[in-house]
Amino acid sequence: MSNQHLQLSDALFTSRRYFDAVIAEHGWGWLRGSPADRDAEATRSQSGPGGGWSPEFLTGAVGYSCLYLITAARQVSSLGKLFLYAETDDLALTAPALIRSTLEHLAYASWILDPRLGNARRRIARGQLEGLASSRSWSGVASSFGDSKDRDRARGEYDLRQAQAKKIFYSSEIQCDQDSGDILKLAGERRPHTDKAIAGFGVIIGDRAFGRGLYKYLCAAAHPTAHAIQELLVATTRPDGKKDYRVGVADDDEYFARLAATAALGFHQAMRLFASYSGWPIEPLDSWLDEIRPAFSAVLV
Fold first, then answer.
1. Which of 33, 124, 189, 239 sits 20 to 30 Å CA-CA off 1?
2. What is the pLDDT of residues 212-245, one digit of tens each?
3. 8 Å CB contact between 299 and 257
4. What's the number of domains the chain is made of?
């Protein structure tokens, strides 16, 4: 293990440690007077076909961000373990898939938390769309692998979510697919495709280039895309004429620093969004950034 990999691993573990400390202190709750608290209060004046709204609608929407941030926290610390224990070749070939998934969780968490919304109705619409996407995905999985009871239960859950959304939002706010009847848009909001969610994440955090170019590489490396793998491998010929392959970026400190920085800094930015929305003190997150920044100095301007 190189000294650089040790530093990157430490920065990733530090990110997880700060995350755990912040959550232990606040427990995912929001403070009075925070943007989240104002959104929750605003729901009391909102209504739909099913009657007046409840702040629980907002709790459910924000809950998806909590789930995705919890997942990202574990992915970041798992990446730290890869940098600490994995052989360099193994790290180069396996880290991209993990970082890609981390960014996707962060992007959808941030889509719900987007501070530019400034509208509880639209934020709750995003939460409802996230729940519908989850149920639709689970219904598809159950259809492929489950028995008839599992399929019926999954489909029933999805149908129930659709019915609930139609009680929360007026028909004029709902756009459905003409063939399937699936809800596509609520209150003008539509769940973005993953690449658009990643691009949107960069816009939200004020860095339009963040993850955009690298994300395409991560996708290519995660899928069976020969070119992305071939770019990493260097062929050498043995005395017997047979070929061996090794990872050509094994000594490329910038490559590994950029991979780790993308995950750690993206995670920090998403947590900062959650903290700001919840009204938590930002100083601990600034300390977090100050502590991990030196590990990424090779790739930070």
1. 239
2. 677 888 888 888 777 777 776 666 677 877 666 6
3. yes
4. 1
